[in-house]
């Protein structure tokens, strides 16, 4: 389970806006909040029924690892396969390097559209679990 901490910066209806500190530096560094490596980004999460949470509360945000990996696969594999298939098919038909590259790029773009359609069909709308942070 992937877990991070955040703070509620706004609540509108059933949507909660969270400020999440991105930790791009060393995970074991104790000074990551003061060194400037970690930046903050806002995320809006819909359909929450957490009435006990208020603006300014610190929360723990978690998402199952399987969901994270599944979404990553659905978004990255189709474009990569599209590029490879476009290039291989064009080369097999005797196209030169330039045409094979163009076919690969067309496959890449097609793969991006396929990835978007795949995530829409699967209904994968990643909604993390949000709990009040334990002190």
TrEMBL record:
Alphabetized UniProt keyword annotations: Membrane, Transmembrane, Transmembrane helix
Pfam families referenced in this protein's UniProt entry, alphabetically: RseC_MucC
Domain of life of the organism encoding this protein: Bacteria
Membrane-crossing residue ranges in chain numbering: 68-93, 99-115
InterPro entries in the record: RseC, SigmaE_reg_RseC_MucC
Keyword Nucleus among record annotations: no
Keyword Transmembrane: yes
PANTHER family registered for this protein in UniProt: PROTEIN RSEC (PTHR35867:SF1)
Name under which the protein is recorded: Fis family transcriptional regulator
Native species: Viridibacterium curvum
């Amino acid at each position: 389970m992937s877990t991070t901490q955040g703070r509620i910066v706004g609540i509108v209806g059933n949507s909660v806006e969270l400020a999440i500190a991105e930790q791009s530096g060393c995970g074991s560094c104790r000074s990551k909040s003061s060194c400037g490596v970690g930046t903050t980004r806002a995320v809006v999460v819909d359909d929450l029924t957490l009435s006990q949470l208020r603006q300014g509360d610190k929360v723990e945000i978690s998402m199952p690892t399987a969901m994270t990996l599944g979404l990553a696969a659905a978004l990255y594999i189709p474009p990569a396969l599209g590029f490879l298939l476009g290039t291989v098919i064009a080369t097999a038909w005797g196209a030169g390097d330039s045409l094979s590259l163009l076919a690969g790029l067309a496959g890449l773009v097609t793969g991006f559209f396929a990835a978007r359609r795949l995530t829409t069909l699967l209904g994968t709308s990643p909604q993390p679990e949000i709990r009040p942070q334990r002190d």
